[in-house]
Known about the structure:
The protein has 303 residues and is of the alpha+beta class. It has eleven helices and 13 strands. It folds into two domains: 1-261, no CATH class; 264-303, no CATH class. The chain is globular and about 70 Å long.
Amino acid sequence: MEFNFKSSSPYSYMRYGGYQGKFKGTEYYLVPNPEASMNIRDVYDMFSKIDSALVDLLNMGKVCSDLDNEPTKFTFATTFAERYGLLGFMVEAPTSKDFLLNDEITLKEDNFISKNRTIKAKDYFELFFPFATNDEMSYTVTNGKVKIETNSDLQKMLSRSSIENQLIYSSFYCEKIDWIVDYAKKMYNIFKKAMDLKNENIYDFDEYVAKETIHNYYFSGIPFRINTYGNTPEIAWQPNSLKQALDMAFGFMLCSEQNPIKICKHCGKVFYAKNPKAEYDTSQCRNQANVYKSRNKNKDEKK
């Protein structure tokens, strides 16, 4: 990647080996599969996979915008979660880092959780742990500190990590499939509008709409610290969730002079271009595009 937002200190993130869809009333959730939760837990360097995660997110947004049906959304959301984990909406959406200390939580303007900007803390907690009993997953606030209450040995293993990690790395933690897909669609729409602006023949109105779409989406600030390795200061990013890391990578990518993430001119798929001059995601797409160009040229010559 030609823009460097990585740190010498890798940022770890956790995913489970499998996820399943589960209904709570009419709401469809993605939750770690119980068997995978017990046997397969992978802690990986989030930034080492951020390129592929961003490409997969944008392709999910593209396909689900074209095919807005439940099987498509479930397939793409599940595949994404199995590769990278859930997005961590619970800790990313509130305006305050210590959101569970308050009786009521204020959410960011561009959150994907609720149209209401405020929600009671207990109701908010229930949104992300709808299938857990109080014995399995609950919390208390004592002396200004949040404590997770659990009888789960797996959950107790997380007790030495931050409250944020205890929440979003929990085997009981869930996210609605619509949240994941809506976020992917939003990101793809912004990306597509940015690509449209590169078209010299774009109409004035379309240019206006594209710029407004890009300007109107708010990316929340990403926490960081300054580390020194030797005598050289370096920014060490500290995203609180996979979503926050994706927002950051997306911003760097979109503002890069040589954006390595492109849309294939033949099939429309989003891809990471190792060659900055690449226009197609595969050799097959390039060959098919050349065939179509040749056929059209022959038709024009015969006229």
